[in-house]
Amino acid sequence: MRIALAQFNPVVGDIAGNAKKIVDLANAAMAQGADILLTPELALTGYSPEDLLLRDSFYREVARGLDIIEQLDGITVIVGHPTKIGNERFNAATVLRDGNRLGQYHKMQLPNNEVFDECRYFTPGAAPLVFEQNGVKVGVLICEDIWHLEPAAETADAGAELIVALNASPFHRDKIETRQQMARFRVEETGLPIAYVQMTGGQDELVFDGASFALNKAGDVVAQAAAYDDELLLVDFADSDFQPGKRAALPDMLESVYRALVVGVRDYIGKNGFPGALLGLSGGIDSALTLAVAVDALGSDKVHAVMMPSRYTADISVTDSRDMIARLGVKYDEIEIWPMYESFMAALAPSFQGLEMDTTEENLQARIRGTLLMALSNKSGKLVLTTGNKSEMTTGYCTLYGDMAGGFAVLKDVAKTLVFELCRWRNTVSDVIPERIITRPPSAELRPDQKDQDSLPPYEILDAIMARYVEDNQSAADIIAAGYAEADVNRVVRLLKINEYKRRQAPVGPRVTPRGFGKDWRYPITNKFS
Question: I need a surface site. Which of 236, 242, 481, 526 has the fewest CB within 10 A?
């Protein structure tokens, strides 16, 4: 028996388009001798449809999509989709063969943590599904089911000889290895081999990284699809086990994070129909990495970079920006903001009379730049990519309606220290980021001789505290006990808390850590808990 794992990139809500993709994949699989086509979780609708799942008209369209796939002959298709029975909704997988529906499985374990809200939408399933293909009994599971013993054990007890799992598992660092280990635990507990298909593509802040695989009864990876790319991975089952097949090499952590950012930008821009991307280039490392990602995602012809110097912008910032533009070949403009700044200051002079200069004047420069970028965006239709990183989002080292103005925050979940690592990794592929951009001390260049570390702890300290507090949920006391200076910890935690209102107004961006400032960060803005 041959199983084709259909690792592909559906579009949320494009049910007819996704159904056509599944039909095309089924025909390609049949041409290669496959008996079963296994699709990802909610492949027919894309993951996750969120509150589209609350609309009855959505399920009527799902039914039409299933009817299209059901017309296939010569192959068994296991398609992931939502279904509604009475007043209950289920995350389902239906087994279709030659115009017949052999059964429907309902996901048993519904995740309701991190970025997941499945208990908002679905009722958990209560029974395993095992069907027969070529004399082999095949058990079906969906995503979170693999992370728990009970669904796999019940499937084994129902007579399954192998398990197939449909998945839409959002990426974060080290997630591929974690998934394989969880599947390996289920193999050890049940004695059954597992075929695991994973979705690809970007959906708002989520990225799906592919890397579908099959484990034999010994828990060894015997077939491995590439990460991030669409692929039809063929797995043969003979002599009661999966046989060795194609094994693609998997990326290391830095390559994986970088490619996730590329996919996130590519699909957010592409699936939403924007003609390209626009960003402010400062000569600093964050905008340099954002520009590199944008070009890798969209191509240089769809990216427009704008340098907006002031009297505080160092000459080397302009020089390095021009250097990077020459390397990448994107459209480039320079717009001097100081005359505009002086006009604003003249208009505000009566209201500011007798008041000392402070961050107000710095923020005004950022807001002028944001206004210019948004005007260019309105005129061209291109989406503004913001360039702030996770360290800045944590501490509020960013300006509302200034550098936060835009539609997609590429580095929103990338700590500053990781920004440096990703730039160095990208230059190992091709030398696109000038070395001086990477080695210069970071600066917002909004006042004379400004450095980020004038007002923040060193990024190595800041990012370590942030990771412990945000991603690991450690308390300030726990972090201090781990050896971090009390003043640094209290300062970072305080800045995190008082800047919640900024993060709530920030654009979405791709999630690459176990906890980003998106769907999996839901703190009240008005909050007196300490």
Answer: 526
